[in-house]
C-alpha cells in the first residue's frame, strides 16, 4: 500500500465503501436482489482492479485484448449500451402504462358524465310527460296555433 499511487489511495477505499453499501442494501433487501448483487460485484471488482491493475492486463490478454485498460473500456461501453437499452425499454413500458391508465380514466369519466339511457330519472319523467295526452290544435290550425287557411 505504501507504493500505491494517489488514485489507488483514493479509489480503493471509495470503491470498497460503495461495495459495502451495496452489500448492506442486499442484506436489508432494499431494491431487487439482482440489482444489489450487480452493484456489489461491480464495486468489488473496481476495488480489486484499482488495487492491482496487473490483474486486468492478465485477464485482458487471456481474452485476446492487448491491454487491461482496453478491456475495462470495452466492458464499460457494453455496460453503458446495455443500461441505455434497459432504460429505453423501461421508459416505453412506463409510457404504455400511462397511456392505458389515462385511457381508462377518460372512459370512466365519460361514463360518469353520461349515464346510460333509462337510468336518468329526469329523462324518465320527460319521456312520460311526452307520452301523456297533450292538447291538440283546433281544426285548421297548425301545431303552433296559426291559421292554416282552412274553413273552420
Overview in brief:
This protein is mainly α.
Question: Can you walk through the features of this model?
Answer:
This protein has 152 residues and is mostly helical. Among the domains are: 1-51; 68-111. It contains five helices and no strands. The relative contact order is 0.05. The model has no long low-confidence stretch (mean pLDDT 84).
Overall geometric form: elongated
Beta-strand percentage range: under 5%
Write down the Rg.
Answer: 39 Å
Main sheet: strands, sense, barrel = none
Number of strands: 0
Mean residue pLDDT: 84
> Helicity level, as a percent range?
over 70%
Instruction: Give the termini distance in whole angstroms.
Output: 123 Å
Order of helices and strands: HHHHH
What oligomerization state is this entry in?
Answer: single chain
Number of helices: 5
- Uncertain segments are none
> Which structural class matches the secondary elements?
mainly alpha
Secondary structure topology:
Layout: H1 6-27, H2 33-51, H3 53-62, H4 68-113, H5 121-131
Helix pairs in contact: 1-2, 2-3, 3-4
Key terms for this structure?
152 residues, elongated, mainly alpha
Amino acid at each position: 500500500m505504501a507504493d500505491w499511487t494517489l488514485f489507488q489511495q483514493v479509489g480503493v477505499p471509495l470503491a470498497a465503501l460503495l461495495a459495502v453499501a451495496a452489500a448492506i442494501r442486499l442484506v436489508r433487501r432494499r431494491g431487487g436482489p439482482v440489482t444489489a448483487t450487480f452493484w456489489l460485484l461491480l464495486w468489488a471488482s473496481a476495488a480489486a482492479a484499482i488495487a492491482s491493475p496487473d490483474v486486468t492486463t492478465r485477464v485482458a490478454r487471456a481474452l485476446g485484448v492487448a491491454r487491461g485498460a482496453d478491456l475495462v473500456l470495452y466492458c464499460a461501453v457494453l455496460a453503458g449500451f446495455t443500461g441505455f437499452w434497459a432504460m429505453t425499454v423501461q421508459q416505453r413500458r412506463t409510457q404504455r402504462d400511462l397511456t392505458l391508465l389515462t385511457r381508462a380514466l377518460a372512459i370512466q369519466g365519460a361514463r360518469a358524465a353520461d349515464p346510460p339511457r333509462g337510468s336518468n330519472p329526469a329523462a324518465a319523467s320527460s319521456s312520460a310527460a311526452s307520452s301523456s295526452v297533450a292538447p291538440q290544435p283546433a281544426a285548421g290550425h297548425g301545431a303552433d296555433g296559426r291559421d292554416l287557411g282552412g274553413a273552420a
